[in-house]
Backbone:
């Protein structure tokens, strides 16, 4: 007999898996749609391994066209082959479940890119508007970056990634305790240079805008590797510290103080937490002590023992 608790837990897990499957499928579709439209129209190169895969695909397609071939070089096999090393890093250092879901995103993105006709994606746009949009690389880079950054943030929020450099960025973030999205932008310069020398500089230069917009959207929507320093003045230090630990699994330091105006004894709590935990801490602190004074400071780096939720 299966106990009721185990059965409920199993049902909850199945619902969670079904939701993850649906959300990541949608995100994969968004990524592929952005690649087939904005990226293709502007001759752009996305970040990391995907951009390299597109560059290899375009070179291979160019060679096929020169040889008089009529077949289209598929994107998916090239992308999967180039993701072998990043996926191994994911399995080895980040987490198996996280990597498997990421591998699903990589596979589905390539699948959608190879099977979805562009005409279906643009069927709701008039020919005049489509011609104007596809001829404007700035708009392509701007809206393409928004679409990809949004889809990438969805994947990260659901414990997956779009593959390639994302694995390396997450690995470095967890090892070094700091954001590495700017490092990704620097590494991608090599891909843009290669694309510029091969197919011209217009697409490569607009790709800088595309990647910058992508990173800004991710930075705004995904805050796990951003930190907030909290300075909380309260008369309930023990309960506030317990709340901080319960929400973020981070400790706190309590300093005794005296109110400069009231002259009454008080406590100042110092703690560093992940930015996405901070709003929950604000709410709970105000419930514990409605007169608590909370000051937050953006923190660029943490050195020392800092808890990060493990990826399974």
Residues:
């Amino acid at each position: 007999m299966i106990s009721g608790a185990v059965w409920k837990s199993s049902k909850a897990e199945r619902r969670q898996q079904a939701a993850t499957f649906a959300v990541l499928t949608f995100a994969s579709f968004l990524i592929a749609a952005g690649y087939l439209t904005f990226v293709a129209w502007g001759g752009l190169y996305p970040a990391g391994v995907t951009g390299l895969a597109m560059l290899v695909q375009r070179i291979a397609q160019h060679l096929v066209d020169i040889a008089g071939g009529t077949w289209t070089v598929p994107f998916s096999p090239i992308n999967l082959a180039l993701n072998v090393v990043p996926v191994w890093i994911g399995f080895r250092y980040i987490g198996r479940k996280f990597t498997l879901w990421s591998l699903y995103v990589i596979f589905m993105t390539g699948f959608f890119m190879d099977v979805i006709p562009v005409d279906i994606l643009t069927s709701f746009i008039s020919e005049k508007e489509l011609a104007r949009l596809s001829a404007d690389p700035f708009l392509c880079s701007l809206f393409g970056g928004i679409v990809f950054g949004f889809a990438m943030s969805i994947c990260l929020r659901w414990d997956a990634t779009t593959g390639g450099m994302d694995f390396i960025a997450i690995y470095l973030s967890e090892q070094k305790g700091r954001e590495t999205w700017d490092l990704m932008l620097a590494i991608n310069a090599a891909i843009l240079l290669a694309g510029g020398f091969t197919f011209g500089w217009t697409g490569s230069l607009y790709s800088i805008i595309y990647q910058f917009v992508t990173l800004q959207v991710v930075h705004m929507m995904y805050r796990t590797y951003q930190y907030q320093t909290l300075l909380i003045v309260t008369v309930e230090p023990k309960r506030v510290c317990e709340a901080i630990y319960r929400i973020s699994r981070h400790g706190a330091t309590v300093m005794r103080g005296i109110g400069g105006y009231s002259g009454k004894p008080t406590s100042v709590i110092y703690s560093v937490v992940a930015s996405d935990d901070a709003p929950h801490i604000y709410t709970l602190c105000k419930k514990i002590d409605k007169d608590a004074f909370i000051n937050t400071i953006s923190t660029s780096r943490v050195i020392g023992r800092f808890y990060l939720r493990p990826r399974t």
About this structure: The chain has a mean pLDDT of 81.
